[in-house]
Design goal:
The protein is α+β, with helices and mostly antiparallel strands and 93 residues long. The protein has a two-stranded antiparallel sheet with strand order 1-2. The structure holds iron/sulfur cluster (2 copies).
Length: 93
């Protein structure tokens, strides 16, 4: 199960550096989670780190990405490097 960030996000910036999979990035208005990179922190921590630190509790499960623990571990095993941030060397222009 990937997690998702709702529009209650206040852009406090604290979740992004906590993600072990570089799944969180700033979107056009609020932060967002890449469901193809979020493993619910399976393989790294006992609980989702973004949810632990979010001060407004705006990170529910994403109902579009229901996955078992085994599927999450397989996703983790196949994760490549995260896309570079916009404007960084190597970012698409
Ligand atoms: S649950 Fe873990 S892997 Fe998923 S976005 Fe949050 S910190 Fe990243
Ligand atoms: S911790 Fe919560 S409120 Fe802060 S940027 Fe992340 S999702 Fe938004």
């Amino acid at each position: 199960m990937a997690l998702m960030i709702t529009d209650e996000c206040i852009n406090c910036d604290v979740c992004e550096p906590e993600c072990p999979n570089q799944a969180i990035s700033m979107g056009p208005l609020i932060y967002r989670i890449d469901p193809l990179r979020c493993t619910e922190c399976v393989g790294h921590f006992d609980e989702p780190q973004c949810r632990v630190v979010c001060p407004v509790a705006c990170i529910p499960n994403d109902p579009l990405y229901v996955e078992t623990r085994e599927q999450l571990l397989a996703k983790l095993a196949h994760l490549g490097p995260a896309d570079p941030p916009d404007g960084a060397p190597g970012a698409p222009s």
